[in-house]
Structures are given as structure tokens and as C-alpha cells.
Amino acid sequence: MIKRIKLRTLLIGGVITLFFAVLMGKVFWIQVVEADFWQDYAEKVWSKKKTIPASRGKIIDRNGDILAVDAPAYTVAINPKLIHEAGIQEDIVKGLHDILGKKEDELRELVNAKNEDGEFYRQREVRREGWKVDQDVKEQVEKLRDDLMKEHELEDVGIILIKDQKRYYPKNSLAAHVLGYVNREGEAVQGTGIEAYYDEELRGQDGSLEYKSDGRGIEIPKASEIFTPARNGKDLQLTIDYTIQYYIEEAMREAFAELKPISMTVVAVDPKTMEILGMANMPTYNPNEYWKGVDQKNFYNHAIKSVYEPGSTFKIVTLAGAVQEGMFNPNESFMSGSIRVPGQTIHDVKRSGWGAISYLEGVKRSSNVAFVKLGYEKLGPDLLKEYVDNFGFGQKTGIELPGEAKGLVSPVYQADYAAMSYGHGQLLVTPVQQLVAVAAVANGGKLMEPHIVKSITDPHTGETVTTQPKVIRQVISPEKAKEVSGYLEQVVSDLKIGTGRHAYIDGYRIAGKTGTAVKAAKGGYDYTKQVVSFVGYAPVDDPKIAILVLIDEPSNSELGGGTAAGPIVKKILNQVLQYMGVPKQIDKAANSSATATGAKAPELSGLGVQEAKDLLAGKGISYATLGNGSKVVSQFPKAGTHMKPGQHMYILTEEGQHLNIPNVKGQSLRDALELLSVLQVAVRTVGEGFVVDQQVTEVQGQRQVTLVLEPLSKEGDQEAAGEDASAQNEDGDDKNETDSGESGEPSP
Q: pTM for this one?
């Protein structure tokens, strides 16, 4: 018996000893052999890391108006478990359906969602309709939540709002193709504009906070922390002017509705610096709602990506080369109508021609024959090609936008060179290339690189890098450029035969050229499909703006570049030149008299309101106060401006966007535009002259003023008196009329 007890005791002791031996071995293995592995694992369990998101840099226009900025957003989520416990499934489904527009069956699926264990989820986001919604939708969801809590006497109804941020474009579709867009995941969509091109600079770098926590995930006080601050993205200032962009898009909308083309493109630049003042395409899209059933073609920036045969706007290059080489005699005559070149016969738009006419008349009428003789016969193929290359065709311009095409310049046969002299054949250009070339004539012969970013600022260091104008080469001399400008001015100012007469504005000197390029088809050209355009600049003696309007396949194929694009150019230039403060020449005497007798506007910024009023009263200047502030924020007219007799001084005591719009009846359009631009109000004009009426409306959430204008006197108003006197098809220049020849060389 005792022996059995001893054996049992020995066995139990042995098992216990073995157990402790195994346990100690395991402890040794864990603490010594695998110490590094388990230390890392423990660190992962204890350590927590929070991401501190960086703010994406702002994009502003040249005057500081915000075009793109990060804004607060909210994601709608629900708690299916709580909703079922409260028994309010259908209330939640119907309420969120009414606010978010999400289908009821999809909402029901979310409300009834269960995990792998068959339990209702505690949180499900309402994607995509409830993802990153704005303040208005957030407030509606909050009201629904509060109403349900009150109705069912609950403390929580399972509706959650998660704070987030998103990219916001306060001007909606304005300059959409320039800006591009950032999607809901916070990623710049490639190929869509500045957002994508400068994504690395704009997006910044997220920060982080690493800390130790207990088993419940709660931060342990005084535990070591590693804090890496977020580095916000850089701010971009564009060369775009919001007001000019607005004028461009407003004119385009009206024309697009009337002409019903496939697409339309307008680009405006300062020819002296090649800063892009405005760039737009129709159709377009709203980057705030890029997902709303928009056709992919609406996202396409034709200004830099589309290539086309330019037609007669390209004749400016041929004319510039001929003038530079001393081969253009405006009084020399030639026989219009048709001309034979190896491989084909080329015709003017009026196939019978106008008889023997001067080369200057050929420029005004945009005679194809005149430019074949100038480019193909006088300059010759090699020198013509050299000028085409020097003006930048067949090469990317270097503009800071993604996806720029380089075009095509590849003449092979003699007929190709002849066709190139008037903008057809083996020649494809982008709208920006065409405008860069024309701006070189406007600015005195300098081919310059276009740019759309004015400066980049690092918000952390305050360092600003400014884009400087870049001259690529001198293509013609300043004297010859001035001479070419004089001829192009007559294309617009000759109201009888000038193809550009529809862009004529009384009082402004405008140079321009029209184009109507018939689209190529199998075996030739399809005359029912054409690209019509107008390119020009003003004022001729001191150009402030160069502009190109291009319309792809207007529904009426009888319209040429002059009759379709000319009126659009006229409307835009008339508004922009006055907005820029460029006086009409007919007003020079009146302006001189006013300057001689008017007072000089004093500097008021920063003064107290009463102090400013006393100062103006002492100088005999009448005034009006706008806003409820105590100090002068800005003024109109600006300090140093010579005021006209009887002109009011406007004292602004708040930022312009917060002020009521004053009555500007009786003012000139220039004065009204300057004042309203200070108030950051978009302006639409009807008519010409002085303001006789004004109407305030809201367009896409932005204030807009429509000014009705009438001249003080109708006498002498003979603008466009002969504009429509000639035949409808005298736009001219433009259509490519060719007959195939016998040499076997293909037509362009």
C-alpha cells in the first residue's frame, strides 16, 4: 500500500516537474529565442497611429478670387443594429431617400446589413450619394435625425455624420477645363487640368501622431508620443482673370445654343507676356458634380488637345513671312479666281474670282490664290516651311496643362506646300499653337511660351516662385510686325469687303483673321462639315488681349469664320477692353477735358469712415458709403484716378462680396464694370453706351448683374453700316477649293 502511494507520488511529482520544465522551456523560447518577434508584436498592440490629413493647396485667379479650395464635408452613415432595435427601418429609408436621392431598395439593403456572425452592423456608410456631402445636405440629415428622435422619443436613431473634407470649386463650371478636378477619394484625376499637372505641389504631405494605448485602445497619459505635423499643399495663383473668363463663357453659352456645334473653344491671352487670361470649351461640366451623368467628351480640353486644319487664320504666318522678306507689295496686282500648282488647281471661295486685284485686297478678301502666290511662289516651299517651324507649329508650346498635342507639319508634295500657305494640307495645329503664333505678330515679333500659372506659394515658408515671361525666339522684326498688324487691321475695319468686319467695334482698333477649314473626308473634303474660327488682337497700337474663337461644325454649314465667330469675338472684346479700362479713341477728347477739370481721387484705404467723408467733403467730391464697417476697406475710383466732374466716390467698408449692389444707372460701361468688379460681381451687358437699367439675378450661386446700355446719342452711329452689304459667302478666305491634277500626287 505504502509502495503504491510512493509510486503515485513519484508519478505525480514527475508529471509536475515535466510540466514546469516544458513551461520554463516555453518561457525561455518566448523571452529569449523569440524575444524580438514578440516585442514587435507587443509594440503593434500598444502603439496607435493617427493620420493628420494635409490640406490641399488653394487655386486662385490673378486677382485673388478662389477657384478651388478644400472645404468641410460630411459622410452619412447608419447604425443598422440601433435602427432595428428602435424599429424605424422604413422611416430611415424614406427620409434618406428624399434627401440623398439614393434608391429605397439600396437603402433597405444597408439598413438590413449583417456581418458574418449574423449580427447587424453597427456602422455602414451610405455610398456614394451620402459620401462627402456639403453643408446644406448635412443640415437636412440633421433635421431628419432630430425629427425622428422627437417623434419616437429616442436618444439616438442610428444616423451618423462623419466629418471630412473635400475639394470645392466655388465658381462651379467656370474654367473647369483649366482646373480639372479631384475625385471623392481625394485624388486628382489624371489628364484633367491644373489639379493633375501640379498634383505633387498641391496635395502636400499628411502628418501623423503615434502614441501608446491600453487594452481598450485608450491613450496612456505621459506615454511617449511621436508627432509629425502635416505639411499643407502649395497655393497656386493662375493667370486666369475670373471676370474675363466669365465674359468668355457667357458669350460662348449664347453662341453654342444658337449655332449647335459639336464643340467650341475660346482662348484669350496677354500677347506681351503670353499669360492665359481665359480658356474655355463647350460642352463643359461642373467639377463639384463630375459624376452626374456627364458624357466623357465634356471633359476634353480642345484648346490644347484637339488638332485641326486651321484654314485661313494660318495665312497670318504666310503674310508675316512675305512681309519680313520684303516680298509683299500691297499695291501689286494678281489675277484672282484660281491658280495651278503641281498636282492640282486651287480656287478662291468665289471660283470666278474678283478679277485683277491688289494683294492688300487679297488679304482683306482672304484670297487663297493670293496666299499661294505669296507663300508657295514668292517665299518658296523651303522658306515657307522655315517660317512655319519658327512660329512654333509642329511643337508643343510648353503650357502647364496635361495632354498637350504637338500638331503636325509634314508636307511632302509640292501641292502640300501650296495648301500649307493658306492653312490646309499636311498641317494640323492646336488652338493654343495658333494663338501663340498670332500673339507673336501682336507683340512685335516675339514667339513666347504661354503660361497659366502666375505664381506658386509655400504656405509654411511664405516663399513665392513667380513665372517670368519666356521669349523663345524673334520670328520677325518689330517694324515688320507692326506692318503686318496694319494689314490685319484692315481685314476688320473694311466694312465692305473685310472678312473680319463682323468683329468691328467703333472706337477700338482690332486686327484679325477669319478661318473656315473644310473637314477632310475619303477622297477629298466634306463641305457640309467645317471648323470655323477667328483670331485677333486689340488695340492694334498697344495690344492688351489676343483671342481665338473656334467652332467645330456649326449646324449651318454656310456660315464662315467671319459670320459665325466674328460676332463672338466682338462681344468678348467689347466687354473685356472696357473692363481693362482701355478707352475708345472717339472718347479721347472728352477724356482729356475731364482730366483737365476733374479732381484727383485721394487715398482713403485704412481711414475711418468719418475721416474719409471729411476729406472728400473738403475736396468737394460727392460720395456714397457701401457697407456697415468702421474703416475704409477699398474705394472706387482708385487713388490717383482723375475723376470726372460730378462723379461719385464710393467708399467700401466691407469686402465686396458682402455688399449690396449699388445703382449704376447713368454711368459709362467702363465705370460700372470697374465698380462691380470691386464688388466681385459678374456682369452681363446688353447693348452699348451708358447704363440705362440694371437687373440683379443669381446664376449658379453667384450674383450677376445685367446692365442694359444705350448710347447718349444715336447720331453718327454707323458701325457695321456696310457689314452685311456684300454677299453672304464673302467670308471667303476660308474654304479649300481644289481640283485634283494629273500628276498623280495626292491632294492635301
A: 0.75
